[in-house]
Amino acid sequence: MTQAPVRVRQEERTRAMRARLLEATVELLVERGFSGTSTTLVSERAGVSRGAQLHHFPTKNDLVVAAVEHLTEVRGAELAAAAKALPAGAKRTRAVLQMLGDHFASPVFTAALELWVAARTDETLLAAVAPLEQRVGRETHRLTVELLGADESEPGVRELVQATLDLVRGLGLASTITDDARRRRRILDQWARTLDAALKKAAA
Q1: Against a cut of 0.85, is the pTM above it?
Q2: Cα–Cα distances in Å, from 74 out to 4, 19, 21, 48?
């Protein structure tokens, strides 16, 4: 009669342990980069024994691939939550750009960037990273279209949305090297005006 509750508790402990390992992996990717992240450091950061960590993730790539999937879920949840807080009205476009800019300047994006770079020369990692990044890209594009109220059946609108995402992603990439918040604000201010005018023209 006690087997089911015991099994449930064990499954909960296992999920919690895996979550700690994945969170520790993301933290180390941000702090030390891919090359500086090791399974030993991850297990120490997570407070999990090496034996338990190796049982679930025998190699660094196993661990990092699982972290890629975890990051995908986290990034999607963060964007969805931020989208709910956006204002309506004249300032909405600028707020959407700010939301996207904050997302692409976040630690989660930095960790994902480390995985992109490592995957460029690691076929196993690339096989895991590429399809998940494609999924994230499609979902981010879809969400941006929805938040801007853009009509992609109009000529050029899809390209405007993609240019917007390329812009904020590029600004996020630049922010990993230097903090130039004032310049980024000016760029996003101008792009918000340009985007509003272009979308209105396309809808006319």
Answers
A1: no
A2: 30, 12, 15, 22
